[in-house]
Fold this sequence. Notes:
By secondary structure, the protein is α+β, with helices and mostly antiparallel strands. It has helices at about 30, 40-65, 75-85, 90-100, 110-125, 145-155, 165-180, 280-285, 285-295, 315-320; strands spanning about 10, 15, 70, 125-135, 160, 195-210, 220-225, 230-245, 250-260, 265-270, 295-305, 310-315, 345-360, 370-380, 385-390, 395-400. It contains ten helices and 16 strands.
Amino acid sequence: MRIYVALLLIGSFFYVTNSQDVAQEVPSEEAEEEDPFYKNPLNRLASSASNFGYDLYRMEANKDSSSNIFMSPMSIVTALSGLSLGGGQRTESLIHRTLYYDLLNDPDVHATYKDMLASFTSQTNGLKSTSRIMLERKVRLRMDFVTQLEKFYGNKPKVLTGNTRLDLQEANDFIQRQTQSKIVKFFKEMPNGISILLLGATYFKGQWMLKFSPQETKMRDFHKDEQTSVSIPMMSSRNVPVRYGLDSDFNCKIVQLPLTGGVSIMFFLPLTVTQNLTLIEEGLTSEFVHDIDRALQPVTIDIRIPKLKINYETELHSTLKDSKLRSLFSSPDFSKISSKSLMLSHVVHKAALELNEDGAEAAPRVEDRNRNYFPLEYHLDRPFLFVLRANNNGALLFIGKVMDPKGLSI
């Protein structure tokens, strides 16, 4: 695997990972060796699924570079991966290539996916996520598809009754039950013309390892651009232990903070308010973020973070129609689902994320002599991007871009 140079600036010191050269990209025998992290089949699957998540985020972001975007791609990946069980060879192969499964060499990919879903449930207490496949009325489902979908992905497909009121209530009740009432009224009304509908819903209530003091949360300016600012609640804390670096290629400062439940959040903050986030977005891959995670250095900083409560919903079928999956909407082979001709018609996603002062314990006074200390300030007071990942396998649980936090603040 080729390792790309990423130069991280910590205060006035430079830190370069062992596989990097300061002046240029130099492939070496060491660089070509497989990272031990990727020898685990579950980690490789999480990386592949997350890479589709980054792709999906980019496709949405390219529609409108100036808008807020929040997604939990894993719920859509789960629905697509389950749907592949119903595809004939051509359609199954298409979905697997799009999800990068063809790079895994894992004949038991669905069993591995089941293990990955179980790891989220057991370690990420604040995460409530579900997906479902819904099909048009009067479809006779093949039992092999129903059995395998439930075995590996935990949910049976749902055939609509044709009674709009009952279908709406059942769908919303399912989401509310699966998310423990964190997401209610997923649908305001049932979409028309359903053949196959994929839905994905995720809620996450973040709890910091080190809590913020509510007394330190104040209204402060967030600079949307050089001319425009909005006043929002901004949490702040001093001498916070974080992992930090500066990427000289993307001209952004990166901070990673741990949360409870086996997850961490990584913020990407451009050096200037005028800098476009597109360059950072285009560079995001599982491997790149994994390399950043290894390169960041422990320091203590003074930090400010917007207090956020985000509810975001979007219809993704128009986006996916412009992707490698376009044929799923016109001429797929879902003969393993039913003898009736079916095609993907709708993909609906809803994500909710809450970040406030709550944490597991109070931030201590920094006494650790092993931790470098620089009087650094890290203020998320201009457009920024974040990724929320599982610590054990790097799975992308949430990704978002905050361009204007007004209306997102609690």
